Amino acid sequence: MRFARFAARRLAEMAATLLAASFVIFGAMYLAPGDPASFLLSGRSATPDAIKAINEQYHLNDPFAVQYLRWLGQVLQGDFGRSIEYRTSVSNLLAARLPTTLLLVAMALVLVMAAGLALGWIGAVRGGATDSTILVTTTVAVGTPSFVAAVLLQGLFAVKLHWFPSGGTGTGLLDTLWHLTLPAVALALYLIGMLARVTRSAMLEALGHEHVTVARSRGVPERSVILRHVFRNSLGTVLTMGGLIVSTLLICTVLVESAFSVDGIGQLLDLSTTTKDFPVVQAVSLIIVGLFMTVNLAVDLLHPLVDPRVTLGERRSAA
């Protein structure tokens, strides 16, 4: 019952934040320099007839509140309007490109979780030269932005070695996975370093706890001590980091998809911003905010299940 109330409250907060975000996203068009009609014409000839047509199509002569409520009502029905640049429904553009972005983010997330957790675990448990090597490696990874990693990976594995394609999305599942491998690595590299360092620090802290010493003194096998008493107690920190990881992946797709010419919503946002295709920019921005908040909600709901010290957003006092 308490969990249901907590979930309902978080959903209500998410809905309110999304509503506020939608207002800001829609209102951003009016913060752009110049008349909204001229802005929507994207530099094309702003004849009186053209401006009149734009005003009628987008109801720009209506009060701002009326325009916003009309747009919000359409969004709630899945209608994001019509793209100025592509001359088609924005919803159709999103439906065609969103699956590619979600697959790319999923691939990068798998790489981050697998490599980041493994490196953090090994560094904390083995120590010595192995730990030092991992620290240096993860420091280099953290200091390498996604767009720099994209250029380096393209130059080495696509242009020089010809192991992977230099861009595009591919056709069919296997071909798509092959095309998205380098973009996924470019997305994941920075975050692998971050997660490895966070995991290592959390496990080193857990290794110093009294219950770990007691478990070892009772003859519990070292592997069980690490898995049940050290790594498990570190999962709360790792899970919190996981929410930040997914959010960062969603944001960085704009750079990586553009670098690899991947037909996802990140590249679509980049191109639409350049061409001032505002209906598309509004839609993609709102979707990214929605995905970001959904991930944070999932982390909040899962946290009490992973870390017994946390219950519905409140940390129990230590016994």
Question: How would you describe this protein?
Answer:
This protein has a two-stranded antiparallel ribbon with strand order 1-2. 77% of the residues lie in helices and 1% in strands. It is globular. α1 packs antiparallel against α12, α5 runs parallel beside α8 and α8 packs across α10. It folds into two domains: 75 residues, no CATH class; 221 residues, MetI-like fold, CATH 1.10.3720. β1 and β2 form a beta hairpin. By secondary structure, the protein is mostly helical. The protein contains twelve helices and two strands. 31% of the residues are buried.
**Secondary-structure element pattern, one letter each:** HHHHHHHHHHHHEE
- The multimeric state of the shown protein is single chain
> CATH homologous superfamily name of the largest domain?
MetI-like
Amino-to-carboxy terminus distance: 25 Å
What count of domains describes the coordinates? Answer: 2
Major sheet description: 2 strands, antiparallel
Low-confidence stretches: 315-319
Which strand order do you get reading across the main beta sheet? Answer: 1-2
CATH class of the largest domain: Mainly Alpha
The radius of gyration computed from the alpha-carbon positions, rounded to a whole number of angstroms, is: 24 Å
Percentage beta strand: under 5%
CATH topology (level 3) name of the largest domain: MetI-like fold
Structural class, from helix and strand content?
mainly alpha
Shape: globular
